[in-house]
Write a sequence for this structure.
């Protein structure tokens, strides 16, 4: 899935990428299938069930399109649209897509990177500050190293955007880390923006031990990287974790913000540090395997399946709960998240295999396949479809009580809504989704939505905004437009809708006028629901009809 910290969505019909956008892909035996008829087949992963990627290399996107970060012109895109790409990209096969609120980077199998979107700080890596509305190849040559036994290639990309600007990171197959864009977030020991990919040195600040010796310092050995709003977190191959960028709200996990003495006109004054310009090691973390960053918080998955978190917590995104004094507090150092890292009963400890972070919420999948979500002030992106909703005066005050921004490091929870707040400020398992029927292999999240991808090729979405496809009732094409069917009854008829979808598509293929009428009905009748749902019950129909009509140039 693409890296989702933002609000646009991509579908790569060739291969599933990895962040506030959603990315999906399909894979199959490309010698025995017609790409034009390819819908959902399988997921190309590293498991024993690995299948060759499909030769179909179509890229689709929808959602917020700030600075044309989707690679097409227009504002909010409320339905999947084909993204124009270079003829060489399908041959290279897209392996990953990274999205920030303002720009997007495609990574191909051979290590080429293509970028589009906002570029005022050089986040596209093209050597200038001119924004692009189409995906453009990033000119990049690896530094020559006689010790390299194999030519390196880029294997992962990450993007971030915040109040100070946008930046990008890339990791190559030899463990080297590169950065470009707004320099405060890149760890390059400078405040000047970098317009092209620049090598990041290993930590020169922080505490070292026997795991970080002089030999390792002379070799770039990174294994994962994630970007947030104005900061970057990266994992060394030793399992240690480093951070760089903005100090605000503890997003670096380095502890209390240092105080600098500033001398002006023969007078000295104290001033809190704003940025950590070089990578600094976060103390106390061992055996880290993966990272996920939101706007101002981080999740860190350890080798034993436990989760550490730190950063801003005004929306409950850390999952650490309410303090004994009734506050949601920011965490300036890594803190374990229950029930994944600690529990009153050791038998109830859950171990995780996947993590993802939206701007203000978090997601995890445990080893049993159950999905856990928390944060976002209890929003629809958590996928719980809660009957408990605040009404009246309290509902109007929520955004003021739990601000996404602001400088405060703690939020007091009013006693009257304490129980409601507890339903979303700690991890909560999504009910109704059984791992036996839904084998999730990838998760991603954005500003207001969450996406799950299963090994069977199904996509589940929850949330609000243009990213979440409309829910389409199975009676949408009936002649009677006044049907009062309820949402619950519609959700219960998923299996029947799959057959109906196939019948509808077969009928549409020979009647262009009928296609136009029914597509308009889809738009008129679409509604958004907050429960996670299979695409075959909603957007799957929407996508099939869209793809068919696009072939008819409607």
């Amino acid at each position: 899935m693409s890296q989702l910290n933002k609000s646009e969505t991509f579908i790569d019909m060739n291969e599933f990428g990895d962040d506030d956008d959603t990315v999906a892909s399909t894979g199959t035996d490309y010698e025995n299938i017609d790409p034009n008829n390819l819908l959902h087949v399988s997921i190309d992963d590293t498991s024993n069930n690995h299948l060759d990627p499909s030769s179909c290399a179509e890229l689709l996107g929808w959602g917020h399109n700030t600075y044309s970060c989707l690679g097409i012109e227009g504002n909010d895109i409320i339905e999947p649209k084909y993204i124009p790409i270079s003829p060489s990209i399908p041959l290279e096969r897209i392996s990953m897509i990274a999205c920030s609120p303002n720009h997007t980077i495609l990574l191909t199998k051979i290590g080429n990177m293509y970028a589009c979107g906002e570029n005022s700080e050089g986040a596209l890596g093209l050597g200038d500050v001119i924004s692009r509305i189409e995906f453009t190849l990033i000119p990049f040559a690896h530094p020559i190293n006689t010790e390299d036994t194999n030519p390196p290639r880029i294997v992962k990309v990450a993007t971030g955007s915040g109040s100070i600007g946008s930046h990008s990171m890339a990791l190559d197959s030899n463990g080297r880390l590169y950065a470009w864009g707004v320099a405060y977030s890149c760890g390059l020991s400078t405040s000047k923006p970098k317009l092209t990919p620049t090598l990041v040195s290993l930590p020169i600040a922080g505490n070292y031990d026997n795991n970080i010796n002089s030999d390792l310092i002379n070799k770039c050995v990174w294994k994962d990287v994630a970007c947030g709003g104005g900061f970057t977190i990266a994992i060394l191959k030793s399992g240690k974790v480093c951070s760089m960028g903005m100090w605000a709200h503890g997003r670096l996990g380095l502890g209390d913000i240092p105080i600098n003495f500033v001398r002006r006109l023969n007078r000295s004054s104290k001033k809190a540090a704003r940025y950590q310009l070089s990578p600094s090691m976060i103390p106390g973390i061992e055996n880290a395997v993966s990272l996920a960053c939101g706007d101002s918080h981080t999740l860190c998955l350890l080798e034993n399946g436990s989760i550490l978190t730190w950063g801003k917590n005004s929306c409950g995104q850390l999952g650490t709960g309410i303090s004994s004094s009734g506050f949601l507090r920011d965490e300036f150092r890594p803190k374990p998240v229950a029930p994944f890292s600690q529990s009153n009963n050791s038998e109830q400890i859950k171990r995780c295999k996947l993590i993802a972070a939206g701007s203000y919420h978090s997601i995890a999948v445990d080893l049993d396949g159950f999905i856990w979500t928390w944060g976002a002030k209890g929003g629809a992106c958590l996928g719980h479809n809660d009957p408990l909703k605040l009404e009246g005066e309290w509902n109007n005050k929520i955004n003021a009580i739990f601000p996404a921004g602001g400088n405060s490091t703690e939020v007091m929870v009013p006693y009257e809504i304490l129980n409601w707040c507890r339903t979303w400020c700690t991890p909560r398992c999504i009910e109704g989704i059984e791992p036996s029927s839904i084998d999730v292999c990838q998760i991603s999240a954005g500003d207001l939505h969450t996406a799950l991808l299963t090994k069977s090729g199904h996509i589940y979405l929850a949330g609000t905004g243009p990213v979440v496809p409309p829910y389409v009732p199975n009676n949408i094409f009936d002649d009677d437009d006044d049907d009062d069917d309820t949402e619950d009854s519609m959700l219960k008829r998923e299996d029947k809708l799959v057959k109906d979808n196939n019948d509808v598509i077969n009928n549409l293929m020979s009647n262009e006028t009928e296609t136009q009428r029914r597509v308009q009905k889809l738009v008129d009748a679409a509604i958004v629901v907050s429960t996670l749902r299979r695409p075959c019950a909603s957007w799957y129909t929407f996508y099939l009809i869209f793809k068919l009509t696009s072939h008819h140039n409607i």
The chain has eight helices and 30 strands. The mean pLDDT is 76.
